Amino acid sequence: MPAPAGKNNPLQDGRSCGTEDKMKRLIILFAALLLFLSAASAEEGKNYTLPLDLTPGMPLLKSNYLNGWHYKDPTIEMAAREETDGEKRWWVAEVEIRDGSQLRTMPANSFSYASHADGSRISRRANAVLSCDGDFWWRDVKWKGAYVLRQGVLYLHELTGTRDVLLIDEDGDFHIIHDATDENVPLPEEPTGPVMYNGKQIYNGFCFGPTLVENGKALTIEPDEHIVTERTSTPRLAICQMGEKKYAIVATYRNYGNLQDFAYLLENLGAKTAYNLDGGDSSMIFTGNTMINRNSSIREIGDLIYFASAWPEEGAQ
To answer: Is 145 in contact with 163 (CB distance < 8 Å)?
Structure first.
């Protein structure tokens, strides 16, 4: 016969205890989930930025290198690779950052006057996760003009209307001004004031060029003797915006082709905007002070474009 109901019923007590245990476990799991989501939300809401000056990025941890060409922390991820079609060779280094301030520039010595230094030494001083040669600004070349805007400071503007200027704003977005002159590029309202464009502050501006890809399409490259557009034996270097806070630095070996061929390569890689930088034997990509592309010996240059970590715990461990 079934046992009578009541508080002394062992079967009913067992079922009751089991239900209570399950409820306790569910409550604990739910509380843990809320704690995890709260912590994740708080982490996502933190504003990891670097100062708008010439200080380097945060020091890097060797443990964050997943391999020699792959680095990852909560504010940046970089992965580089070498590619070949059997005859031609090129290198692609892709990087994603959390804040626009992590796309930075570093001079050999100062942006106030011409100077140069070993590229790997500048990269090491910058604590660069990824870096490359800049735009030849320190050389005395009148054909190019100049637009030296670095880390929010406009040092020089002497544009001749023959170059494309690349502007990088506070969000890390690229803007191109074709045939740039002092009349159609942004200048500060006050001598030491910020340079604004479309309502955003411009952090860095470059004037080597030309633009290779715009709106996802390779542009037609006009012949230009000064940047050897037609020569097929010159190494090439470009910086690309691939998406929101996503970028690529691409370099080719000296047998890749002319500058038009390079533009098509960048289009095929998915670049939204791509801008030509100082190439030739200055086509250098570094992670830290290690050169990724085995193109030539490391040479002295005037400045670097680099991507830095903004993770504050890097230097504390």
So the answer is: yes
Bridge partners for 158 per DSSP: 146
- Complete DSSP assignment for the chain: -PPPPSTT-HHHHHHHHHHHHHHHHHHHHHHHHHHHHHHHHHHHH------SSS---PPPPGGGEEETTEEEETTEEEEEEEEESSS-EEEEEEEEESSGGGEEEEESS-SSS---EEHHHHHHHTTEEEEEE---TTS--TTT-EEEEETTEEEEEE-BSSS-EEEEETTS-EEEETT-BTTTS---SSTTSPPEETTEEEEEEE----EEEETTEEPPPPP-GGGTSS-SSS--EEEEEEETTEEEEEEE-TTS--HHHHHHHHHHTT-SEEEE---GGG--EEETTEESS-SS---EESEEEEEE---TTTTT-
Taking the model in full, what pTM does it have?
Answer: 0.84
Q: How far apart are CA 304 and CA 150, in angstroms?
A: 11
Residue recorded with tokens 């190019």: 144
pLDDT tens-digit series, residues 2-43: 445 444 554 455 555 567 777 777 776 666 555 545 444 445
Q: Give the residues across from 308 on adjacent strands.
A: 128
